[in-house]
Design a protein that fits this description.
Layout: H1 2-35, H2 41-52, H3 55-65, H4 69-94, H5 96-115, H6 127-147, H7 174-200, H8 204-211, E1 264-269, E2 276-279, H9 280-284, E3 289-296, E4 307-316, H10 317-323, E5 337-342, E6 347-351, H11 352-355, E7 362-367, E8 370-371, E9 381-383, E10 397-403, H12 411-414, E11 426-431, E12 446-450
Parallel strand pairs: 1-10
Antiparallel strand pairs: 1-2, 3-4, 4-7, 5-6, 5-10, 7-8, 7-9, 11-12
Helix pairs in contact: 1-4, 1-6, 1-7, 2-4, 2-5, 4-5, 5-6, 6-7
Bound molecules: ligand MTE and molybdenum atom.
The ligand Nc1nc2c(c(=O)[nH]1)N[C@H]1C(S)=C(S)[C@@H](COP(=O)(O)O)O[C@H]1N2 is lined by residues 246-251, 295, 297, 342, 344, 346, 376, 389-390, 393-396.
Length: 461
């Protein structure tokens, strides 16, 4: 009986640690629903981790996990937290206060991460981590208290001495522990589920605003797709990539939901005497262009999937910049870099010269006949033919600033990527697939090639 009692307290202490961690995260989830979904500790720490991930590792994660990279990151964080929670539980069995303080320490880490995110505008972002950690620490203290019920434990330290015959059988408060642990587990699950569902339905205003968007007919329609560009070879990817199949690459753990009715963007900076502010309605009311533009990620491997072609509708960016008084460097303008800022704090810098050289750089409002999907930047994103995504295609736009490449390094440039990155001419064989074993005889080889905005003459295999 005594042996059982002693032997079981260690795993129960570990379990207490887990329950404390679970309670902390669940309470944090619920509080984050009241603050904002991005303020939760896992999202905040995950975001901070993404920002600090070396470029090579980020590339590796994109290549191996693709769009699931963020799921793996969050699962990784949860695994690490679970292991640490187990350790804290065991530690608390001996040092009750220290164990509880350890939980609080994690709260501090989460809080610091939350308030130092680039999109954090309020100290309230610390609340989910802090309140969650208080709940977790309190619970751990309470549960360990049941395991080391004072007066009933011979040693009083919580650990029955080896071979101590006088320790009363069941020298801890079993009933109290079981009741407290089950109540805590149930309450945590309730808080967590409620928080999840509230966070899941955040941004209803944005969803409603997107549903109401009617894209006007473009003043300048896209060229018809040349018949020669549409092959009917089985296995070839279509000329236009459907929105649901379009690749996604970004650093956002929570997809920003921006309400188009309140969206506004300022165009300002070097060489602009009067900053220009535009609303979504302003943009919809302008002369829109419709163009087929290929978007591709610099992290796309040869033959890889991070390239897509969509029919975009948007406002010619050069016109808007001209209206704001911008001149390209070749015509004496003082700014050579346009820095786009997103609501989630991403910064993307593009050469002003490229944007104003006559190519169809645009503020895109529509993608393949519908308003931008949320994952692709609703309500407004940039699209610049011929430039990789990380130097041109800012999603969830919030601000455009004219500056110089000398004066400012954007997000990926700070992480040692090139300041300028024109898309290289590339091709991909879609069929036969890698490692396919086609039957003997004639084998059709087909695929896609892109060289925006120069065009492809022919591809040789
Ligand atoms: N706000 C924001 N915009 C962003 C990014 C990002 O991380 N955040 N990633 C860029 C990169 S690296 C690429 S390749 C394209 C991908 O656009 P897509 O996800 O719509 O395909 O978006 C660009 N715009
Ligand atoms: Mo990218």
């Amino acid at each position: 009986m005594k042996l059982l009692s002693r032997g079981i307290r260690l795993p129960l202490a570990a379990l207490s640690g887990l329950l404390a961690g679970f309670a902390a995260l669940s309470v944090a989830e619920l509080v984050s629903a009241a603050v904002r979904p991005e303020s939760g500790p896992v999202i905040a720490v995950g975001g901070a981790a993404i920002d600090r991930t070396p470029a090579a590792l980020k590339d590796w994660a994109i290549r191996h996990f693709g769009t699931n990279d963020k799921l793996f990151l969050q699962l990784g964080i949860l695994t690490v937290l679970a292991l640490l929670a187990l350790v804290l539980g065991v530690l608390a069995l001996r040092f009750r206060r220290t164990g509880a303080a350890g939980v609080l320490l994690f709260g501090v880490v989460g809080a610091l991460a939350a308030i130092s995110r680039p999109d954090s505008t309020s100290a309230a972002d610390a609340l989910p981590s802090v309140i969650g950690a208080l709940a977790g620490a309190g619970l751990l203290y309470l549960l360990i208290g049941r395991l080391t019920a004072p007066g009933r434990d011979a040693a009083g330290t919580g650990v029955a001495p080896q071979g101590e015959a006088s320790a009363p059988p069941g020298g801890w408060d079993r009933r109290g522990f079981v009741i407290a642990a089950s109540a805590a587990a149930a309450a945590s699950a309730g808080a967590g589920l409620l928080g999840r569902s509230l966070n899941g339905s955040h941004g209803q205003g944005a969803v409603a605003s997107r549903a109401k968007v009617v894209l006007p007919r473009p003043a300048s329609a896209a060229q018809p797709i040349p018949a020669a560009a549409v092959l009917h070879t089985p296995g070839i990817s279509p000329f236009v990539t459907p929105n649901g199949d379009f690749y996604r690459v970004d650093t956002a753990l929570v997809i920003p939901k921006v309400d188009a009715t309140t969206w506004r963007m300022k165009i300002h900076g070097k060489g602009i005497a009067r900053p220009l502010t535009v609303t979504f309605q302003d943009l919809l009311g302008r002369q829109l262009i419709e163009r087929d533009i290929t978007l591709t990620c610099v992290s796309n491997e040869v033959g890889g999937p991070y390239v897509g072609n969509a029919r975009w509708i948007g406002v010619p960016l050069a016109d808007l910049l001209k209206e704001a008084g911008v001149r390209p460097p070749s015509r004496g303008g003082p700014a050579d870099q346009l820095v786009a800022r997103s609501v989630d704090g991403m910064t993307i810098g593009s050469p002003v010269e490229d944007i104003m050289d006559g190519r169809d750089a645009m503020l895109a409002l529509g993608m393949n006949g519908e308003p931008l999907p949320f994952v692709h930047g609703f309500p407004v994103r940039m699209v610049v033919p011929g430039l990789y995504g990380y130097v041109s295609a800012c999603k969830w736009l919030q601000d455009l600033e004219l500056t110089t490449f000398d004066a400012y390094d954007a997000y990926w440039v700070k992480r040692s990527w090139a300041k300028k990155a024109p898309i290289k001419t590339e091709s991909r064989i879609d069929t036969p697939k890698p490692f396919a074993r086609p039957k003997a005889g004639t084998v059709m080889i087909a695929g896609v090639a892109w060289a925006q905005h120069r065009g492809i003459d022919r591809v040789e295999v």
